[in-house]
Design a protein that fits this description.
Layout: H1 3-9, E1 10-18, E2 25-33, E3 46-49, H2 60-65, E4 75-78, H3 84-89, H4 100-114, E5 119-123, E6 135-141, H5 160-167, E7 171-172, H6 175-182, H7 186-189, H8 193-202, E8 204-208, E9 214-218, H9 222-230, H10 236-242, E10 250-255, H11 259-262, H12 265-272, E11 280-285, H13 292-295, H14 297-311
Length: 324
């Protein structure tokens, strides 16, 4: 589905809202389906969170393919404070470090700003940080919350993922050149075309270079993505320890060939914590890696919709409080 097709089916309101810690701002999209659902059921609001180095619009290919039942209510997707359009808004106040707890409080700020109730959280980070807010269900996409001893507490100059990020290309003469270049990379070749289009269209910004020439660069500065990798352990081990306490429906959606799984930490998490969840469901997206929603949006949307069909009950007057 192209951007034009998506816009013909969903109304998008783009706005900025205060973060949990001023002066940072959060760029947030609100999506509402233009054609109403045929069901009379009330649909809970949904919050979508993106993976490190990406942006809110990356969820649009999945949203477009989800069951109308689950996309008939308000949906919110926002950019982490140092990435996407939030990075552009906050360019003058970005810091030299990153605290994942702040991302958690920013999710709570979105909930409070829009007065959301019985919220369903979907994303790479919803269950990857100690989220101090109330959810009625969680869809955790290949989450990286592991025991404390798994994390590499290394300075940025010694962190392998951080260093790889700093070395990669982040500017091009145009979006056309950028897309052509990315399609030559193994990492991007496995993405669904719509996901790559979204990355190019919404993840890049026009710039004027020092010599007066024009071009495009990533909205998320390489340094910000790198320090987010380097500080990935802040808070994630806390959410790992708290997983067994959740008594709401939790969907663990993982990639069959995810590099997270290949280091055995992923399977350790499943064995130690996920099996203890009272209302947990594990689904594996065949042939997909860590960024499974970008590679296989249809399969991801089908599994998320099916899980919510089984797990979420609108009759529940007061959902359990999920505090990771």
């Amino acid at each position: 589905m192209s951007t034009v097709d998506f816009q013909s089916r969903f109304k998008t309101v783009r706005q900025s809202v205060p973060s949990s810690t001023p002066p940072f701002q959060l760029a947030c999209n609100t999506y509402t389906r233009i054609a109403p659902s045929q069901t009379n059921e009330s649909t809970p609001p949904m919050i979508f969170t993106h993976a490190n180095g990406f942006h809110k619009e990356i969820w649009e290919p999945v949203i477009a393919r989800m069951s109308p039942r689950w996309t008939s209510g308000p949906m919110y997707a926002f950019d982490c404070r140092n990435q996407g359009d939030s990075a552009v808004l906050n360019k003058d106040v970005l810091e030299q470090t990153f605290d994942w707890y702040m991302y958690a409080y920013d999710i709570l700020k979105i909930v409070d700003t829009f007065g959301l109730k019985k919220t369903i959280g979907v994303g790479h980070r919803v269950a990857s940080v100690p989220v101090p807010c109330t959810f009625s269900a969680i869809v955790a996409v290949d989450p990286t919350n592991f025991p404390r001893e798994i994390y590499m507490n290394l300075p940025l100059e010694d962190h392998p993922m951080g260093q790889l990020t700093l070395k990669r290309r982040d500017s091009w003469k145009s979006k056309v050149e950028a897309k052509a270049n990315l399609l030559q990379k193994k990492f991007f070749k496995v993405w669904h075309p719509e996901a790559l289009d979204s990355y190019v269209e919404y993840g890049m910004v026009d710039v004027v270079n020092a010599d007066g020439s024009t071009g495009v660069t990533l909205k998320c500065p390489k340094f910000q993505e790198a320090i987010t990798f380097a500080h990935v352990g802040t808070g994630l081990h806390d959410s790992f320890e708290g997983m067994a306490k959740l008594d709401i429906p939790v969907h663990l959606l993982v990639g069959e060939i995810s590099d997270i799984k290949q280091v055995n930490a992923h399977s350790l998490m499943v064995q130690m914590k996920f099996d203890l969840l009272k209302n947990g469901k594990l689904d594996v997206v065949k042939g997909a890696g860590h960024l499974l929603t970008l590679e296989k949006p249809q399969e991801s949307a089908d599994l998320i919709s099916a899980f919510l069909d089984r797990a979420w009950t609108p009759e529940a007057e007061e959902p359990p409080k999920a505090r990771l």
